[in-house]
Amino acid sequence: MNLKIATAALLVGTLLLADQVFADCPGPFMRDVKRAYENAKSAESQGRKEDALFFYHGAEGEVCEGPNPYEADAAKRAAPLALELGAAAEKRGDFEKAERLYDAGGQFIAADRAFIQTVRAKPDDPGTYQGALEHFRGRGETWFAANNAAAMKAAGAYTPDPKLVAEVNAMPAKGIERATQKEASNFNEEYLKDYVQMMQSRPDDATDATAIQKMIGAQQAFTQKWKTDDMVKVSRDALNNLRMWGLTVQDQKLAATVAAKVAQLSDQRATTLRQKFAGAPKLLEDAMDYYRVPASDNQKVEVHVAAVRSQSLKLGDDANAKNRYSLAAAYYEVADADDKAEAVRQRGQQAAMQKMQPSIDQMRKQAEALQTQYGDPAKVAEMQRQAEAARKAMQKQQATSKANNKKSAADLEKELGL
């Protein structure tokens, strides 16, 4: 009796312990992989190969209850499906999908081949480099082989290709070189000089046809000469890209060199814009953006930005004193002096209205004269009578002309004996 009770207690304890173990296991459970395996076989029998592949992949791996009896066969069936579907996606140029398909079937060598194509498509993106670095680093870990043992057994052994790893490791140096060249080639002082001249040609008098024509000519000449985007923005974007490479690169010495280079170039570009090309308000805005690029010392940046705003405010006052209303408003906006910008715009509108007032008065007089003329019923009736008489005269003239044409034709026929 006591033995039965002890055995029962042990059984209950074991079941309770098992329940506790399963409760602590997040999954998957045996029922999950069984369902995935059955779904995979059903999809494959119906010709839904891609669904089958991912269902087979879902049937692989460990389960909470212990060994997974479906894993080996699922991996064996997934491997050829991955080769077929991945190759088709690769042929279409859809390398991201090809990588996912190859990976699902344990075809890791082929997956890396597709993956590196996506990396090569973005050689100047530090984020792409970071993702590639983690990709190959993870695949070289022992846990990767352990977690994918069944897939490798079905599809073949795998280790990351050293050539691909070396290609990824070389990305930062090449990306830094390209970003440096791009930044230098787009910060063009001749372009900046032409841009300032174009902005200075903008008239403040909307009634000055000659000045407006001159402005249009200057804009067309600038566009034809510089068939490109905003070169200052391209330069600054390249500088930001250089900064990101410095933050991403693994070599700390190279990272420090890049950071110093970015800080130096940012300061140089901003200073050049302030000292030589302040004639265009936008370029002062660009100078502030250059100061912000390093993003390392916010207090220093704020000092520089405040100096640019002060410079813009003074230039706005100078332009305002010369009645350059649009130019002054643009400078005030850079200086963050919105009230002054609005005030000078209103001054410009008032000046334009005063200059246009004589023309407005003349148009008003003409409108009043027309209203007076067409407001008199007798005059309107007389104009209608004259119009009707003119219409009748025209009809009579057309009828006479038609009759004469017929007569002339008849005479000609008679003369010719027809």
Structural topology:
Elements: H1 2-24, H2 30-45, H3 49-58, H4 71-92, H5 95-104, H6 108-120, H7 126-139, H8 142-147, H9 149-155, H10 162-169, H11 171-186, H12 189-200, H13 209-225, H14 231-248, H15 252-276, H16 281-292, H17 298-321, H18 325-334, H19 338-374, H20 377-416
Helix pairs in contact: 2-3, 3-4, 4-5, 4-9, 5-6, 7-14, 11-14, 12-13, 14-15, 15-16, 16-17, 16-18, 17-18, 18-19
Provide a descriptive summary of the structure in words.
This protein is mostly helical. The chain folds into two domains: 22-168, no CATH class; 173-356, no CATH class. 81% of the residues lie in helices and 0% in strands. It has 20 helices and no strands. Helix 2 (30-45) packs antiparallel against helix 3 (49-58) and helix 3 packs across helix 4. The chain starts with a helix and ends with a helix. The model is unreliable at 1-21 (pLDDT under 50).
Structure characteristics:
418 residues, mainly alpha, flat, disordered N terminus
Order of helices and strands: HHHHHHHHHHHHHHHHHHHH
User: Percent of residues in beta strands?
Assistant: under 5%
Indicate the low-confidence ranges by residue numbers.
1-21
Helix content: over 70%
Terminal CA distance? 146 Å
